[in-house]
Design goal:
Layout lengths: L1 H22 L3 H22 L8 H20 L6 H30 L4 H28 L13 H21 L4 H19 L7 H23 L2 H24 L4 H6 L10 H5 L11 H9 L3 E6 L1 H6 L2 H13 L3 E6 L9 H8 L7 E3 H4 L8 E5 L8 H4 L19 E5 L19 E5 L2 H14 L1
């Protein structure tokens, strides 16, 4: 009877997870989707507590308390700017849990002499992918948090070396399946997984970290699937499959949005120094940035008919989303039509700008995707770029030597007038110079984005 209740609860939880994924596809229903997913996970956890194989509820209680103490601050107090690295850090913990479960199950089977070929395959696969995801996620966290260099760390023959280590891990796994009690090979699988995770991520530039985090999420899902097979737990199989598939699909979508392939992301060392200096080294156009004062910029905004705002990571860093909404309210009171142009990979994770602006109370109907907004730039009197760089760089279309050539971009260069809010004259996160910033139609408003937008708002009131 208890087993039937557990399986029915798992089935209900799985249905909630599927509905949650569907709801997460639209900004208006995303919050409801997260609530359904959380409720589904609560049901799955409670059902699992009824499992007769549980040895000690005391240790489970300790885990719940420790997890709550650590998880609550991470969820409530980590700023949106740090969300990508928080996600990478969470992946590392999730993968570590899967890895430790695999190690524990293998040691238990080793002690009880109950290991089978199929179980050993699942456990070895789980430990290898889990260990890889642990160190890979920690490396991604380090790069996003700038504890490690954002530029690729490369060495001669790295791709061949990395692939050789991966192949060695697969060989050890196959040998372990043939001989389940070969403990040295199990240890080698875990060690190679940890090493591959490090060496797989350090050669990848910081600009590609969001894709890497998404791909690592897919690996963690596959490790969870293997855990489910090893423990004969259906909900782990379902959740792991959903996690793995969604992470893989998201990685494909992000790569497509950057006009990059997986092989280019994983082996391209995007962001490496290419030699030379100035614009020529980065594929940028020659020219000078022309500064503008907040008073002049505000006059353009106040007397415009149509304004398109392009948010980027700089907006998140400055935490200026509330000030942007206030500026939009002031412009709309003057009859200005304002829209936000959302690039698929603006910020450091998909949906970063949507979540940021929704947090400030910006209406969803003002957030327009790249495919729908691009044709409107030609009719815009002003395009206001707030902290965006690569997603508005015309070099992606005009300069074949640029590392971002072919990447779909927002047509900001088509606007009648362009104002760019930027902290300084340096390069963006990817290290690529931006041709837009030296365009004759562009003026730069330098300074902290929050302060600059507050100045713009004050000047618009007086206009």
């Amino acid at each position: 009877m208890t087993a039937t209740i557990i399986q029915l609860a798992y089935l209900f939880a799985a249905a909630l997870f599927l509905l949650a994924l569907r709801s997460l596809g639209q900004p208006a229903t995303a919050r409801r989707g997260m609530q359904m997913a959380a409720f589904g996970m609560l049901i799955a956890v409670c059902a699992t507590l009824l499992d007769q194989r549980i040895v000690s509820y005391e240790w489970l209680a300790v885990g719940v308390i420790v997890g709550g103490v650590v998880g609550y601050p991470m969820g409530m107090w980590v700023p949106m700017t740090a969300m990508p690295q928080r996600i990478a850090f969470s992946h590392a913990f999730g993968a570590l849990a899967a890895t430790l479960v695999g190690v524990g199950e293998y040691l238990h089977g080793l002690h009880e002499h109950t290991l089978t070929h199929g179980q050993t395959l699942a456990l070895g696969f789980e430990v290898f992918l889990g260990a890889l995801t642990v160190t890979g996620s920690l490396m991604a966290f380090g790069k996003l948090q700038e504890l490690l260099p954002g530029a690729p760390i490369t060495f001669r023959g790295q791709n061949v070396f990395n692939l050789s280590l991966f192949a060695a891990g697969v060989v050890c796994l196959l040998w372990l399946v043939v001989s389940p009690y070969s403990v040295p090979f199990f240890i080698a699988i875990a060690a190679l997984g940890l090493l591959v995770g490090i060496l797989m991520v350090v050669p990848i530039g910081g600009a590609d970290m969001p894709v890497v985090v998404s791909l690592l999420n897919s690996y963690a899902g596959l490790a969870a699937v293997a855990t489910g097979f090893a423990l004969d737990n259906n909900i782990l199989i379902v959740v792991g499959a959903l996690d793995g598939a969604s992470g893989f699909i998201l990685s494909i979508a992000m790569s497509k949005a950057m006009n990059r392939s997986f092989t280019n992301v994983l082996f391209g060392a995007f962001g490496a120094e290419t030699g030379g200096d100035g614009a020529s080294a980065a594929g940028g156009a020659a020219g000078e940035m022309v500064a503008i004062g907040a008073d002049d910029a505000a006059l353009r905004l106040a007397f415009a008919q149509r304004v398109i705002i392009v948010p980027g990571y700089g907006l998140a860093v400055a935490q200026a989303q509330h000030q942007v909404r206030e500026l939009v309210d002031l412009m709309e009171k003057r009859g200005v039509d304002v829209r936000f142009a959302i690039h698929p990979v603006a910020g450091r994770m998909p949906g970063h700008m949507n979540v940021l602006l929704a947090e400030a109370g910006v209406s969803y109907d003002k957030l327009v995707d790249m495919e729908d907004i691009n044709e409107r730039f030609a009719d815009a009197d002003v395009a206001l770029v707030v902290g965006a760089n690569d997603v508005v760089n015309p070099a992606a279309r005009t300069n074949k030597s640029s590392p971002i050539y072919g990447m779909p971009i927002l047509n900001v260069q088509d606007a009648k007038s362009i104002i760019v809010l930027k902290r300084g004259r340096g390069k963006g996160f990817s290290g690529v110079e931006n041709d837009l910033f030296v365009s004759p139609k562009t003026n730069m408003l330098f300074g902290d984005a929050k302060q600059s937008i507050m100045q713009l708002g004050a000047e618009v009131k007086l206009a």
